[in-house]
Amino acid sequence: MRWASPTFSSGSSKVAEGVRGRTDALEVLSSWARVHRTADSPLIWTHAPSVGEGLQAKVVLEALLEVRPVLQSVYTFFSPSAAPFARDLQVNVAGYLPWDVRSELERLLAGLAPGLVSFTKTEVWPGLTAAAVGSGIPVILCAATLSEGARRRRLGARQLLRPTFGALSKVLAIAQEDGERFLELGVSSDCIEVTGDPGIDSAWIRVQDAAPGAPYLAPFLQEDRPTLVAGSTWRSDEERLVPVVKELGQRFTHLRSIIAPHEPSPTHLDRLEMMIRKAGLRTVRLEEVERRGDDGGADIVLVDRVGVLAHLYSVGSIAYVGGGFQSDGLHSVLEPAAAGLPVVFGPRHGGVRAASDLIRLGGAQSIEGESNLTGTLHAWLEDAGLREESGANALGYIERHRGAAGRTALAIAEFFPA
């Protein structure tokens, strides 16, 4: 793949951006090690594939540095979407994960001399794992998730992955069921520990950090309007949402919707704006809301940036989470739950444990299409008591499961004696 990578390195696609980022990834980390590595300070190398996993890793690293403040830290990621996120992390060096070539990673590990390599959630790379274990460096998986329908549990995948997962020193699972499934991948039972989902702590913190006076939040608090916040939406979500919003608007004339696309590129926003206007609805972008200080009575506000969604849930009444009609599956339901909102999403949520838990507890509902979505939203908008009860159930789930970041950090700290 690396030999062929120059073919895919031009252009603005995610693939091209990722290939370019990996071109000098090895040298970025090696250069830092040569200049800044402190021999008498222990070091942890944390890898998280994208932003969602990065948020889990971030809150764990912050908790870890409270108990082991002398640690140096290296952070790597895979997806180009995580590059801006990584730049803001309080780590010593961050960058793309180099190509997973064992011989080169062995030389990098010799320079970095980490006391631990930590993967996050699902992504465990065989080259890096083999290089670390061969060098006597323990490797662990934090916020470890293995759902019932995970492709890694298929026969061929299990046979391919057993040497890598079997080499892990510790698997810190989000739940007992997830931990037990890792036995199928060759993880020893005495290496599995259930510490919970640090993503819950991360979601709670981000929602609590919402400042009502922020320019992108204050305009929504000026007028008491029922507000649907639709986060991380794809086209498959928006094609269902817009007609439903139009229909509900005829019954609930003050209804306001905020739609935050998963990838708010100019092309995507222009297409979505056209769809909304064709439906006869008024729309405005968040940038304009900030500039004017109000939403101008718009039916739908389009979020034209990333990084503000968790805060926007704090001004909502109901949440819709996107991805449930995509093959990649549902996005995080934790932020709206942490904001105390009832949550609705599409049918493809089998790999998201929190989604199933919220449905069971009455804090969320899964829908199959437009008619189900209309009925669910109508019921919550019509009955404030029902809406508040569902939101309280969602928030209760978050409050009961907080603390995983601290437990995970303490488990990691055992690899770094005080």
Describe this protein's structure.
The protein is α/β, with parallel strands linked by helices and 418 residues long. It folds into 2 domains: 5-196 and 403-413, Rossmann fold; 212-400, Glycogen Phosphorylase B (Rossmann fold, 3-Layer(aba) Sandwich), CATH 3.40.50. 45% of the residues lie in helices and 15% in strands. It contains 18 helices and 14 strands. The chain has helices at residues 14-23, 25-36, 51-67, 83-87, 102-112, 126-134, 155-165, 176-181, 198-208, 235-251, 266-278, 286-292, 309-312, 334-338, 353-361, 370-382, 384-400, 404-413; strands at 43-47, 72-77, 93-96, 116-120, 139-144, 170-173, 192-194, 227-233, 256-261, 283-285, 300-302, 318-321, 343-345, 364-366. The strands form 2 sheets. The chain has a 7-stranded parallel beta sheet. It has a 7-stranded parallel beta sheet with strand order 10-11-9-8-12-13-14. Strand 5, helix 7 and strand 6 form a beta-alpha-beta unit. It is globular.
State the gist of this model.
45% of the residues lie in helices and 15% in strands. The protein has helices spanning 14-23, 25-36, 51-67, 83-87, 102-112, 126-134, 155-165, 176-181, 198-208, 235-251, 266-278, 286-292, 309-312, 334-338, 353-361, 370-382, 384-400, 404-413, and strands at 43-47, 72-77, 93-96, 116-120, 139-144, 170-173, 192-194, 227-233, 256-261, 283-285, 300-302, 318-321, 343-345, 364-366.
The value of Rg in angstroms is: 22 Å
Mean pLDDT: 94
Structural class, please?
A: alpha/beta
Instruction: Label the CATH architecture of the largest domain.
Output: 3-Layer(aba) Sandwich
Task: Give the overall shape.
Answer: globular
Total strand segments: 14
Q: How much helicity do the residues have?
A: 40-55%
Q: CATH top level of the largest domain?
A: Alpha Beta
Give the strand line-up of the largest sheet. Answer: 3-2-1-4-5-6-7
Q: At the third CATH level, what is the topology name of the largest domain?
A: Rossmann fold
Separation, N- and C-terminal Cα atoms: 42 Å
Beta-strand residue percentage: 5-15%
Uncertain segments: none
